[in-house]
Amino acid sequence: MADALGRVQALAESPIVARVAAAFAEAGHELALVGGPVRDAILGRSVHDLDFTTDARPDQILAVLEPISAAHWDIGREFGTIGARVRVGDLVDTVEVTTYRADSYDGVTRKPVVAFGDSLKGDLRRRDFTVNAMALRVPEVELVDPAGGIEDLLAGVLRTPVEPEHSFGDDPLRMMRAVRFASQLGFEVEGATLDAIAERAGSLEIVSAERVQDELNKLLRTDSPRRGLRLMVDTGLAALVLPEIPALRLEVDEHHHHKDVYEHSLTVLDQAIDYEHSRHPGAEPDLVLRLAALLHDIGKPATRRLEPGGAVTFYHHDVVGAKLAKKRLLALKYDRQTIASVYRLIELHLRFFGYTDAVWSDSAVRRYVRDAGDELERLHILVRADVTTRNRRKADRLGFAYDDLEHRIAVLAEEEELNAVRPDLDGNRIQEVLGLRPGREVGEAYRWLLELRLDEGPLGEEEAERRLRAWWAERAARSDVPSGGDGQG
């Protein structure tokens, strides 16, 4: 405990905090660091965000911050929040200062009713969990902990500062925050709090899809989202947010056996994160990869067939799953690029497994790269992560096969600039060679040349022109259309 309090003291005395604290004190306002910075300092974790709360109203906050900041913004003004970039010597940090709050949902609308409060303890009571309901008054350095957050922090427990039914009624999104913090901090959710989540899971429907998506993203970006995802499934939250995940717990009868698709999907997510860290150490979490890993098998329930002899098949679950993922991500208001990337990864995640049955031709390797496009690196990770068999020999065989495929891709890429596979002739040259105007036939010729490029590799411009003219003449002969472009000479 002494070490924890020492870290809190050091936080209060850090240059940026001390500068902001002095400015508010000079203006006659209260100020306290609140929530995450205090929690993380006590835990000995890095403090990245400096969140303050104050009795000052937004206009007053802005007046205090403006003289000491290199930049400031008021995008959160309606919620009482003003942000700024504060500089002290060579140190620059972002701070957010929010007026004491006392807002809640009215139980009907999808947005909270904003109301400003007038006391620090009142503000802390409306926060989500006791471990986030601690504040550090500055500059006087006084720890304010009305709900026993330190004890819960040291015990690794998530509990609401007030009755959980009341807390989740004020803001149902706190239920999603509970599962996220369980993963982020590695904490257990206290029993009564967990029961309240299960009882009130349905109330999450009044929260906007954008806010739900934001919490889901924060969960998936943690180092170990499995704990939070399990809680989502067990409490019923997943039935509202990602119903495809609990649907993976397929019923298995005594005659038909297959691996648990739900557990498999969580393991694939774990392994994808491990590969992500090993291949790109220190990089930001890859949300697209993690969404694809979690959702890659959601087409299995719809395609499951029980075959004679005890076999279970899931034909075309890759294509079905890609479509289901697109529909779900659209409902959660994800952006187009994220949806397109996740769709492509799920659609392609099974293709590699044909590589172990017969060695691919160079043409097949080129098509694999062409179809993956910008998602090739993510596809490498997803395919490797999808191997969860306990059969060591099988796992090694698949691993060695993918090593070989990646090696072949690298060799071809070096020889042929494979990452930008294009025909030897562009659209303008095709028009010149065949005497065409812009239109459908140019696109048809371009696609034919691209297939030729994928099949045989680079041909060179002269050979490509010769082959194109021969193909065009043959095409014209088949269709009785003169080889002069649009059939008009």
From TrEMBL:
SMART domains: HDc
Annotated keywords: Magnesium, Metal-binding, Nucleotide-binding, Nucleotidyltransferase, Transferase, tRNA processing
Pfam families: HD (PF01966), PolyA_pol (PF01743), PolyA_pol_RNAbd (PF12627)
SUPFAM superfamilies per UniProt: Nucleotidyltransferase, Poly A polymerase C-terminal region-like
InterPro entries, A to Z: Bact_CCA-adding_enz_type3_sf, HD/PDEase_dom, HD_domain, HDIG_dom, NT_sf, PolA_pol_head_dom, PolyA_RNA-bd, tRNA_adenylyltransferase
Keyword flag Transferase: yes
NCBIfam families (alphabetical): HDIG (TIGR00277), tRNA_CCA_actino (TIGR02692)
The protein, known as: tRNA nucleotidyltransferase
Source organism per UniProt: Mycetocola reblochoni REB411
